[in-house]
Amino acid sequence: MAAKVRTLREIIAARRSNKHTVWFDGEVVDTAAMRLLSGEYVKIGVAPKFKISSSAKVFTIGSCFARNVEDKLAERGIDVVSKRFSLPADAYLASLSPAAALYKYNTHSIESEVLSATGRVTYPNLGLIDAGEGLWWDPLATGTKLGDYETVSGIRLQIQKLTSGISKCDAVVITLGLNEVWHDLETGLYMNVKPPMSLIRRYSERFGVVISDVEDNLASLERTISAIRGSAGDTKIILTVSPAPMAATLTSMDVISANTLSKAMLRVCAHTVADRYDFVDYFPSYEIVMNSPRDMTWFPDQIHVKDEVVRFITNYFIEQYVIE
Predict the structure, then answer these.
(1) Residue 27 in this model has a pLDDT that exceeds 80
(2) What average pLDDT does this structure show over 166-170?
């Protein structure tokens, strides 16, 4: 795709309307350098394309960071449709959020979820995988246990029913996470997490890993947005990139390099799509976290972000996008 050429008049207008054009200048207030050295959470300038009513229905989908934002939006009284889902603790392998099954760590698993829920694709056995001895596994329901078909398919149908309402929401917040994707070569479904070792041993040739690039993620994101909007939808889409890093890489790269590459790709995709459509916008939660002091933003594991910064981000999001 050819690069967009902007006229000099457009460039001048953009510079005049942008209060945050300067990285460092001793005579300018609120430069990037000043914000980075402030010792406080870094607020990134945004110019929202649209506003959302405080009475709007909102759906969030994506990584665990999306669930954190979801919680804070709900605390502010916003009707977050995806918040209506929960599973009992004994449905999970470990102690997780009641809504952890909704976590989607990559663009392709978001696509698999949305397209199947909206009837655009179907998978054999709902995409569930036979684990033998009467047990089944859902590759899209994060952290859930193996179970009998009735139980596992019941959870899957519950998630699909919830997600099928995504097109009826006024706004959808999509949080992009990682670019390394497990793929079920038999069904074509892109999975959310690594299959259990018992399944890898049982189906030694069934699973593969896609190290997706910009084009892969861009195409996947476009298909997801098309499914959400439908033929006559008016849903607004807000894209974010999760600051939470990959726990481990499936490549030969140092995990820091692999994670940096992953986030850079997804940030490019988010910008590209937001630049194409007036109903898509990008909110810089990733930049806020990554440029704020680490001891203020991260738990010691350096994977999960602290509640305080999530609340700061959510308050800023509401300030910018929500009409009270």
Answers:
(1) no
(2) 93
